[in-house]
Amino acid sequence: MNPLSIVWEKTRVNMEDYDYLFKIVLIGNAGVGKTCLVRRFTQGLFPPGQGATIGVDFMIKTVEIKGEKVKLQIWDTAGQERFRSITQSYYRSANALILTYDITCEDSFRCLPEWLREIEQYANTTVVTVLVGNKIDLAEKREVLRQRAEEFAESQSMLYLETSAKESDNVEKLFLDLACKLIREAKQNTLDNNDTANAMPGEGKAISYLSCCSTN
Ligand SMILES: Nc1nc2c(ncn2[C@@H]2O[C@H](COP(=O)(O)OP(=O)(O)OP(=O)(O)O)[C@@H](O)[C@H]2O)c(=O)[nH]1
């Protein structure tokens, strides 16, 4: 077979590999559990002695929702201040941001307005943002009341969820609910743009969503 046709075949297969492609970026203070959330969701494990992320890490997971294949590109950013200029460059093309804090660490909650300023400055205005309070397995050490976090999230038009990467509480729900919301918005957007006739499987829907989705 001509090598060119092999390349074309592969491209064609890849294009049909999924119905939607979404980019999700996790942000938040160092040590709140971003990497553990990603690894719990993508690999089903809680890594022992997880070290700090250097720069940005990347994982992919494809899930099936109501018969449609959804490819999630998940970007795990370093929370440390010194990596901020690198991580900011990943906001722009994100379809969704998971802003994470640690329910046992008041400081990580108090920094949220600073993170929101970053989002406002660097992310697309249409990005979907979810606030996540992680480490709920450490209930006895809780420093941030759920109601306070819920009210804060509502005031900022963010979705809110509490998770435990360690115990696997709400981790699947976090990513799957987010994927469902992104699909809904992509479909709405496709309808609004009336461009379904030209959409290629695994290609057109994501592209039209990426370019002009509406959120929250
Ligand atoms: N008890 C408990 N510990 C957790 C949980 N999630 C993460 N941790 C612990 O918190 C620490 C930091 O976790 P990471 O996932 O590395 O945090 P991070 O937000 O990615 O940190 P940076 O990469 O520095 O930004 C590690 O010691 C984890 O074992 C959780 O749900 N429960």
Listed once per kind, the bound small molecules are:
guanosine-5'-triphosphate
Number of separate strands: 6
Please tell me how large the radius of gyration is. Answer: 18 Å
Strand neighbour order, sheet with most strands: 2-3-1-4-5-6
Count of individual helical segments: 8
The largest β sheet comes out as: 6 strands, mixed
Binned, the helix content reads 25-40%
Keywords: Cytoplasm, Cytoplasmic vesicle, Golgi apparatus, GTP-binding, Hydrolase, Lipoprotein, Lysosome, Magnesium, Membrane, Metal-binding, Methylation, Nucleotide-binding, Prenylation
Enzyme class: hydrolase
Subcellular location: Autolysosome membrane; Cytoplasmic vesicle, Autophagosome membrane; Golgi apparatus, cis-Golgi network membrane; Golgi apparatus, trans-Golgi network membrane
Main location: membrane
Give structural notes.
It contains eight helices and six strands; from the N terminus they run H-E-H-E-E-H-E-H-H-E-H-E-H-H. A hairpin with a 2-residue loop joins strand 2 and strand 3 (68-77). The chain has helices at residues 3-15, 34-43, 84-88, 106-110, 112-122, 146-155, 171-193, 204-212, and strands spanning 20-27, 56-65, 68-77, 96-102, 128-134, 159-162. It has a six-stranded mixed β-sheet with strand order 2-3-1-4-5-6, sandwiched between helices. The chain is α/β, with parallel strands linked by helices. The structure holds guanosine-5'-triphosphate. Guanosine-5'-triphosphate (GTP) binds next to helix 2. It is a lipid-anchor. Belongs to the small GTPase superfamily. Rab family. It catalyses: GTP + H2O = GDP + phosphate + H(+).
